[in-house]
Design goal:
heterodimer, A: alpha/beta, Rossmann fold, 9-stranded mixed sheet, two-stranded antiparallel ribbon, B: alpha/beta, 2 domains, 8-stranded mixed sheet, 5-stranded parallel sheet, 10 helices, about 30% helix, about 25% strand
Chain lengths: ~270, ~350
Amino acid sequence: MRIVVCVKQVPATTDAKIDPETKRIVREGTKAILNPFDLYAVEEALRIRERCGGEVVALSMGPENAKNVLVEALSMGADRAVLLSGRGFAGSDTWATSYALAKAIERIGGAELIICGKQAVDGDTAQVGPGIAAKLDIMQAANVSSVDDICPDSITVSRMNETGYDVLKLRFPALITVLKDINVPRIPTLRNARKARAAEIAVWSPEDIGAEPDKIGLNASPTRVVKTEPPAVRAGASVRICAAPSEAAKALTEELFRRGLIRADVREESV
Amino acid sequence: MKIIDEFDRRSYRNVWTVSECAGGDIHPVSYELLGKARELAAAGGCEVWTVVLGSGFSEHLDALYAYGADVIVAVDDARMRAFNDELECHVLERLVEKYRPEIVLCAATSRGRALIPRLASRIHTGLTADCTGLAIDPDSGNLLQTRPAFGGNIMATIKCTDYRPQMATVRPKVMPMPSPEPGRTGRLIRESILASDTLNIKEILQTVERREPTVNLSEARIIVAGGRAMKGPDGFRLLEAFAKQLGGAVGASRAAVDNGWIAYPHQIGQTGATVQTDVYIACGISGQIQHLVGMQSCKTIVAIDIDDTTPMMKLADVSVKGDLFEIIPELIKELNKGGSL
């Protein structure tokens, strides 16, 4: 069976800075990392391959240097890697990204299973996984916390939600997005890391995946960012309480009451 | 769907919300969405429609009108008791094509965040996740969608000018709960599931309810979160008691979860949940950036720690310096005297 795992290069959050003049994100010179959730996606793909055989293909879209995150997937144990790169892809929003990744998966020859991280930590949208599933018209499960069973034609997973979880059986081909809960990613061995750095990574252009020009990049992206600005600045610790425990507790309760965070009626009863 | 011309653009009308229904109950965020939808519909001079996909929710239809729906599109079918992405997407896709809404708002719950991107991808339109601000641009009539990005380090305003409908998700508790208008009424349109909607859909083997309110981070109005300084599982039992007293949920930093003191569903931060509650009480959390990105959009942040030099103590609106294990029992006592948040 073939498993495609989609990974993304993201800025290390600590480095996310805004240019005070242009109000845009400064990407130059910032450190880039593999999206943390994608580590769990790669690990789960490898574990399923170890159980069922087959191959794991790591897939990404981004600039040339996004190869680095594919090298990381290879060093963990992925069999091969594909990077979608080229001017035509530039400016893609989640719709256009989903389209390009779905086309690439078709070009790879399809996959029984596609695994994505729950979301990328730069955009936090969680839209590309379901977006790919929609384009391929296949079953999906988001927020998977465990893979419970794998059969030749289906996979059974637990999907976490706010009040519990659902156990779902998805017929292949299927797409899942995974949570951190699902596994503990392996540390690449030195030997594998060396091998990965030497491995050839296929770089595909829009033409290579047979993308329709009006469905990729900025032109196919329905959304436009029209403004970015820093969030409203917090005043910081406007109230500092430093007192004996019972005094501190009283002061904090009073402060929350003053801010309208404790209901007045309940307070009055107590007085 | 891409707009071809002005005539096409005008054919998309009304503000829709997708009301979330589970086990016959309507999720409260659905009413918050209706409140926002009313505002947008007033600005655009159109109607508010809400779609309910579920089973056995008929007793709640009056509430949906009272909170602002002019029209309810109801699909009441036992096959929609549990959330099935493919089935709900098929049905919504048909309804959107049939009635052509201009705007679709949906809850950014685990269900909404799986369903709506699938729909947007199918019908080729734009979707903005986790909006904290939604307004109609007075010049163009387009929807201005504001959301935090890069873990709350920037606020981005997004437009979808050439595609319809304009779609956005909103997290629970971000928009205010509107006041209902008892006796307000509207039209009901009943739709059904077609055979074609049920093609290639997954099988739901089991639905398990955890039923502990203290773990439901996304719906809490207040979160009490603990970090490394809680020292162990006993520290979290103390937080649990504190949260119960407040009617809130318990959160945790990655350090606490990785140490096995509390389960992963409680984790807040980059690799856990992102929360936007009214009150966030950080107990012994130093405030590494990976944690801050998950909670810095909360309205009021309180920090309690013995060390007042940490980033969390500096960020907090109210900081309390002292020993957690002495202060929290006192807080529980104080709140017990009368008061809940």
